[in-house]
Amino acid sequence: MTTLAANRPAYDGKTLDLTGKSGARAFRNTLATVLIVLCFLIALIPLLWILWTVVSKGYSLLLDANWWSQSQRGITVRRVGGGAYHAIMGTLIMSLICAAIAVPIAIMGAVYLVEYGKGTKAAKVVSFMIDILTGVPSIVAALFIYAVWITVLGFNRVGFAVSLSLVLLMLPVVLRSTEEMLKLVPDELREASYALGVPKWKTILKVVVPTAFGGIITGVMLGLARVMGETAPLLILVGYSKNINLNPFDGFMGALPTMINQDRTELALEPAADRVWAAALTLILLVLLLNLLARLIARFSTIKSK
Amino acid sequence: MAKRIEVSGLNVYYGDFKAVEDVSMTIEPRSVTAFIGPSGCGKSTYLRTLNRMHEVIPGARVEGKVVLDDQDLYAPGIDPVAVRRVVGMVFQRPNPFPTMSIFDNVASGLKLNGVKDKKKLTEVVERSLHGANLWTEVKDRLDKPGAGLSGGQQQRLCIARAIAVEPEVILMDEPCSALDPISTLAIEDLIEKLKDRFTVVIVTHNMQQAARVSDQTAFFNLAATGRPGRLIEMGPTKQIFSNPNEKATEDYITGRFG
User: Fold this and answer.
1) Residue A119's closest chain B neighbor by CA?
2) How many CA atoms are closer than 13 Å to the CA of A123, on its beta-carbon side?
């Protein structure tokens, strides 16, 4: 208090000057504003560029109904025609199987870390392992599953093996985001529930997780988006097939990233190049669609305020 | 309804730190007992031991006896979940469940414990909201989120939620400290009404409030910072505020410290 009083200029009987910013501060304010807006615009450039390129080069094939219903069976790089149905289904099947395995493990793992294991040695070990897993490159995850699924267990290269390696990539993303969301749920809500004589497990199931639901869904979507674009596991664990194959336990399977990779080798040929862009756009749309779906689920699961 | 609580030789710890030392008291049924004392004297901590809410905090533990209806709440084999069904709690800040409607908030205690009968739930919700003096304000928007109410309404919603499970005892941890004077008054009226059916224990920083609502008052204090809090004296509210036995109590209620 005394120092503040000492720093204040003595009151000299004149009216106070409250007219505002000094020149230097106004300058710094403008400078910072300009910098921030500039950074935002710079960040926007590649995003818009990519979107524009993909949309403008890829949209024409997407307007063709065949794109959504036919495979690439018998279509060579020089030929126009065929569709991406085999690849869309492959991507959906493999990533949804992955999600079906990874999401429950991730959510239950996060519940353990936040609700049960807090501060224990086991939780610290798990947390550390998750950090390591976050940094594992997709090709390493793919090789690991190759070693287990094919070398040790002796199975073939199939879609399910890809799903398994994608689990390794999705798990840490979903677990971390779920963990953060659960931490945001105030302890007061847990205590309110305990005070009603509700057991801990039911409190978690009916109060904590529903409160964090929107955030958990966002995490799942982020994980799914990451996983759907992964290419290395596809190349290593399942061959690319131009035919429709909906069985993840038998045979090669098409997927959008490997379809892009297939036609990319002949990019000089127009039919192939068109398909590359169209497949890329399809992948972006697929992720977008799943995102919208998740938003809808999240919205309908909360009660409306109006 | 409404049970007597007898506490004897209670010590409360956070890990190695003894927060409250050697408390013994009797809390009468169908009455309001107020805990007063300076910040950090352990009155809230002590309150939370009465429904085994204290042990929710990692490392927290309790020694001594809390006897409710001839049963020691800390005896081996006692389920804290069962204890909390009998001893409810209202917290300092209103904490309605944000994902639930007003109706579901009040019904949550029953619903989460497996009651599905729609008719019974409707009945209990209406009765509890009446009991919490909130019915007329919310009866037309029971399906709207509880978080959309004002702070005072939210706190009464939390009280409705607590009484909906028909506990014997209701603990209130500074229930008005986040509310404006009008909402505070509404809650105080409600406390007056609640004691017909429940044993009410309230922690408050507001001595006028303690004087207004309580029948018995307990004064807590700590000898020095870092020392455990203790029960200094307890008695009928009139006597504590007009003619306390202890010098420390008199100093506190006359505003000489704390």
Assistant:
1) B58
2) 14
Task: Give the pair of three-digit tokens for residue B243.
Answer: 């003619």
| B53 interaction partners in chain A (CB closer than 8 Å) | 191, 194-195
ipTM entry? 0.89
**Inside any domain, residue B247:** yes
Looking at per-residue confidence, does A74 or A31 come out higher? A31
The answer to whether residues A200 and A297 belong to one domain is: yes
Q: What is the CATH number of the domain that holds B45?
A: 3.40.50.300
CA distance B102 to B105: 5
All residues of chain A having their beta carbon less than 8 Å from the beta carbon of residue B99 are 207, 210-211, 213, 302-303
Same domain, A37 and A153: no
The span from the first CA to the last CA of chain B, in angstroms, equals 36
**Structural domain range at position A228:** 85-301
Task: Give Rg (Cα) of chain A.
Answer: 27
Contact B46, B220 (CB under 8 A): yes
Rounded mean pLDDT of chain B? 90
Q: Is B101 on the interface with A (CB under 8 A)?
A: yes
Mean pLDDT of B226-250: 90
pLDDT top residue among B91 and A21 = B91
Pair A158, A248: CB distance under 8 Å: yes
Sequence-separated (6 or more) residues with CB below 8 Å from residue B164: B106, B107, B109, B110, B124, B125, B128
Its pTM stands at 0.83
Domain-embedded: residue A134? yes
CA A284, CA B162: separation in Å to the nearest integer?
Answer: 49
Residues of chain A found within 8 Å of residue B84, distances taken between Cβ atoms: 194-197
Residues B180 and B99: beta-carbon distance below 8 Å: no
Task: Give chain A's domain count.
Answer: 2
